[in-house]
Each structure stands twice: as C-alpha cells, then as structure tokens.
Amino acid sequence: MENSYSIVTNLLTFKDINSAPNFNQKLFINLKRSEMKNKWIILFSIILFFGCDKEEETVEQLFTEHFQSTSSSNFQLIWQDDFNGSTLDTTKWSRISEGTPDWKNYMTTDDQVYEISNGHLHLKGIVNPDTQTDPRPYLTGGVWTRGKFNFTYGKVEVRAKMDSAQGCWPAIWLLGSTNEYGGWPDYGEIDIMEHLNFDNYIYSTIHSNTKSSPSSSTVSVNPGVFNTYGVEWYPDHIVFTLNGAATFTYYKESGADWRQWPFDRDFHLILSQQLGGSWVGSINSSQLPVDYVIDYVKYYEYVPSPAPPSGSQQYIKIQMNGNTTNTWNHLTEVTLINEGIEYVLPAGHNAPSLLGDGVGVNGASTGFFGLDANGLLEIDLGQGYDFDAIKLGVYNGDNRIYEDVEVSVSSDGITYGNLIVEDVQSSETFALNPPVYQYIKIQMNGSTANTWSHLTEVTLINGGTTFVLPSGHDASVLLGDGIGENGASTGYYGLDSSGLLVINLGQEVLFDAVKLGVFNGDSRTYQGVEVSLSKDGVNYGPVETYDVQNYQVFF
Prior knowledge:
This protein has 555 residues and is mainly beta. It is 6% helix and 39% strand. 40% of the residues are buried.
C-alpha cells in the first residue's frame, strides 16, 4: 500500500446459522462417523462454547469474543485504545499529514476529518470546503503509532466499520519503522485490511523485496458493520484473521534473508481513510463524505512458547483423509497444548528420519510438515511430554476444508490411544483429554417458556454412538411426576413452568454432544433453547443457544 497497490449443509442455528459453518460441519460429521464403539464409556469433547446477551450482537462479534477469550497464551494484551475520551490520545497516536504516495494524497491533520465520540474514532473523507487555503479537492484522516509505539511480533486487533463509495479506500496496516533494509518495499509492509469502493470483500497482503506465493488473499465481509480485523505475527509466519478466524497465512522460507522476511524488527500501526489513487480509481464526490469508524485497537505482545512438561506421550500420528490424501497435503503447523500453554513444533520435526526431506511432499521451500503420499505423518518427539491437546494448522489459500483428519498419540510408537477425528480449515484443536460432566441444564425460552414445553428426547452422543436417556431421567427428584407437566401420558421430560430442566446423570460422564428432541406436531420452533454443563450442579460452563425444530445437537 505504500505505492498505489500494493467459508455439509448448516444444521445448527446460533443467532445466524450461516455464520458458523465449520462448527456445524464438524458436529454433523462426528455424528455420522466413528470407529470407537465403546458402549460402556461415553467420551466427551466440547468443541466450542458460545454465550452472550449483548444487544445487537452480530455473529462476527460473538466469534471474535470467543476467540479472544481463548486466544493463544503466546499473546498478552499490553496496549490498547478504546477511544473513550473526547480527544485523540497523542501519547499513542499522531495524525498523518500530506505526502507523495497515493495513500497520503489527501491526508490532513485538520480537525474536520477527525472525531472521537461515543467511544469511537471517526476518520472521514470529505470534499474540501476551502480550496483557497488548501487547493486539494478532497481531505482525509489517518493516524499512526510511528515513533510512539513500535513493536516486533505480536497480535493486532482492530474492530471497525466503514462506508463505501467510489474511490473510498480505508485500511489497517503495519509498516516497517526502520530502513536498514532499504526503502519501500524492502523494509516490509503487512496490510491487515484494505477495502476498495463498494467491494464485498477485503484484501490482506504482504509486501517485501521478494515475496513467497501466495502473498495476498481476499475474504468476503460486510464492511458496513463492525468486524474485527486482525493479524498474528510470529517469528516464522504471519496469520491474518477476520472476527477471530484465520483467513490467510504467510510463511518465512527456510534460509530466508531480509528480502523475503524483513519482518524481524519494529513496525508501527496505521489506520488510514484515503480517497482515490491508481489502485482504487476515480472518486465520485457526490458519494462523499465517508466515515471510517474504529471501536478499539488492541496489541498483544508475543511471548515465545515454553516446552511442555515431561510426560508419557512421545509419538503423534496424523492421518489426513478425505480430499487431502495425496501429495498436495499442506500441514503447516503442529502445536502441543498443555493447560492452555502452546508449544509450536518446528516444521518437519523428526520428519527426516520418516519422510526424507522433512518439510513436506509439496512444501520443501515453505517449511511445511512432511506427509507421505497417503497423507500420513508420524512424529517422534524424542522424549515424552505431557499435553492435553494438539492443534493442527493447514494451508488454506483457497479456503479448502481438510476432511476427516485423524490424530492419536502413543508412548511407544506401537500402541496408539483413542482416535480423534476433525475437519480442519485453517486450524483446529484436537482435545486429547476432554472434561467430564454430571449435570445438564436445559432452559427452553421463547415460544416454549411455559407449561406446553414438549421435550421428548435427551441423547448423549460420542462421535456417532448414542445413548438415549430414559424419559424423566432424575426428574422425579426435581419436578414431582418426572415426565413433564403437560406430558404425563406421552413420556415427555419434565420442565417447570419457566421451561427449566436440570438433569443429574448420577456420575461424571464423558460425551461428545447432547441432542434434544421436541414435540413438533404443529411444526413449531422452540426458540432460544439454552444448554449448559456442570460437574457439581453449581458451577455451569458457557451456555450454548439454538432454536430447535424436531431436534438439535448442542456442543
């Protein structure tokens, strides 16, 4: 940008069903597939929790808040601006003045293109009302942290929305703060978000002297609502995110110098509203003014991962199936997670002794992990470690989904434990030791809050193996007749007059998911049904909320 250029049918509903495709696909696939047929123990694995009661909360925001609350322990929040004052915090930001690059053509420090109100920073693009004082036809606002807050590595998140107009070009980007590698693009640029005109997508781009491919990606978005645009910058790769979900990753090549990877020293952050230029095109003045609204900016410092503690798990087997069986497998990251602490294995860890080149069948120049022609990789960690989950990252330049990826661990490389199967898009965590629960709380809201609630089935699921709880399970203790206030002759579960049922399983149990079935003789939809889980019946975890018609799977 320094010159002129530079996501299976959805079955679940969560505010907007179409906004959670990965989660829905995984749940559906887990229901229809499993080789584990243990009828005595039902395994439990919660994939995602969501719960929110904020007004007008978009799905994008809910995803963002979830990912933020479970963000990698590699990042610690140390710097932020929520724009809650009445003026720009000049200890953090400077206004950007006019310059020669396209993005600076109409920049000004004048107050008329800057506003801080109601917790938002407004950067505007306007028709210049006084061309006698300043002959430029347009004026725009931008701020940066140069000289006030520079940083190497870390995570940046900016929640913002923007107007669209012909010639409108708002952006969020990082620029190298020093020039020991030379001028632009040699000192490097990380474009987190650029939006042009009326596009329904944004660009994320890397600039350097010599770039690996791919170095740019687009992702669909509604720019007129608040979205959280982000980047995670590591010593050997850069991950772009939209509302907490990874969209594109750029890798440091093996043996790379500054030409391909100038991203090893300080950069600064820029928020800019620009108009016109050779990339964005001409300006339609009748569509002005435009307003670029920033809710907050957060910077999380990068903290290198420690090694996990010693334990018995030494071998990891990864089998990529589905549409990723052959040589175009791109496994880009294997991370061990112990109690939330992440340890990223170096690319090709122990792969030379197993697969030859050690960096991937189709990824010798990009540091990808090696998988054989059948999509198999076995990793010998060299010694045993203690970890409770494994995160896999995959190449996702074309938004592909890696189906039925299998992960298992072993202490001797011969006998492997339970097989965990997930679909992976960008990245996915495989939980090895999922938690156990004894209590299930069900709250039926909306059109089913009162005595005509008809809950007909509660089923525990382990990856396709189901256990249907007997009607009124433990309900007699809680509700008297045990089969429902309005269902004595039909075997329905008991819900009280407020639509509440708490089930005590009698012991702690492991299970994949909970399926609720409802009476649907008149095709009714039970709105806002909430499910949460507890070990002790006192402290419940996050609430998952869906609308239910016929049946619905939670977690």
